[in-house]
Write a structure and sequence with these properties.
alpha+beta; single chain; 32% helix; seven-stranded mixed beta sheet
Length: 279
């Protein structure tokens, strides 16, 4: 058995779902539930949720179909999905249970999608014993599928993905930072503060670019499992480092955690960014 199969005494590789079947389900449902509605949403297919967020018929139908398909691949598995949680917050408790859990964001970047912007994706993570063992992120616009298994790396259709050497200084790093933080950091009189900061409004696409080195770092303050479970795995398998700045703890899927979470090319860059980007 491989080292990852022995980690923590857990046997994981033998109990993973069929990756090709998962990819096929994600692609099919995106083709049938998401893409036909892109730039074609009717007024009754868009609704408001809490905190100013919106939900569309594409979100709801994509999650419904994914739940049906994915639980069929793994007997006794359950789902924690973004829209399911919005209807019943108690389903978050499933992440603390014994059953395998599919964590689903059926349409990440919903507002971009509703505005007709080509910046959205589907995110799926597979969690066992509180650990993310596999993940998938799919951009249906580009037909770009990224997949990772813990201990086996992260891959796309071109092959394995590994981060290269980090930029020489924090100043030239490109990263994802929220709008208010960008404004505050831009006002700092410190030439080591990164100056190229963006936000996609699509966390899944940011994680794809973090794994590929197109983004050097990211900072998040409110981590929901459907947004981050798969992406944190991708970045780690590509060779990156991430942790909460308050206590240095790694991300673990569970209830929404608030607090500064910093993602960087390696541990050394993480500490440098933490120092030049104080809260």
């Amino acid at each position: 058995m491989t080292a990852s199969g022995l980690a923590r005494g857990r046997v994981v590789l033998e109990s993973l779902p069929d990756g090709k079947a998962v990819e096929a389900a994600i692609r099919l449902i995106a083709a049938e539930e998401i893409m036909p509605r892109f730039r074609a949403l009717e007024a009754h297919e868009v609704d408001k949720k809490h905190e100013g967020e919106i939900v569309t018929a594409a979100d709801i139908e994509s999650e419904r179909r994914l739940e049906e398909e994915l639980t069929g691949l793994v007997p006794d598995s359950v789902v924690v999905g973004e829209e399911g949680f919005a209807a019943n917050a108690a389903i978050m408790d499933r992440l603390g249970g014994t059953a395998p859990v599919w964590v689903i964001d059926p349409l990440d970047g919903t507002r971009n999608f509703a505005e007709g912007k080509e910046l959205f994706c589907v995110i799926v993570a597979f969690v066992q014993d509180g650990v993310v063992d596999a993940g998938w992120i799919y951009d249906p616009i580009k037909d770009d599928m990224m997949h990772s298994v813990r201990g086996r790396g992260v891959r796309d259709k071109r092959g394995a993905i590994l981060l290269g050497p980090p930029p020489p200084t924090t100043t030239v790093m490109r990263g994802s930072v929220g709008k208010r933080r960008r404004t505050a950091l831009a006002e700092r009189d410190d030439n080591l503060v990164p100056r190229n900061m963006v936000r996609y409004r699509c966390v899944g696409r940011e994680y794809m670019d973090l794994a590929r080195g197109r983004l050097d770092f990211a900072e998040y303050g409110s981590l929901k499992p459907w947004d981050h479970a798969a992406g944190v795995l991708f970045h780690a398998e590509a060779g990156g480092y991430s942790a909460f700045t308050k206590d240095g703890a790694p991300y673990q899927p569970g209830p929404v955690r608030r607090g500064r979470f910093l993602i960087a090319p390696d541990r050394d860059c993480w500490h440098k960014l933490k120092d030049v980007m104080p809260v």
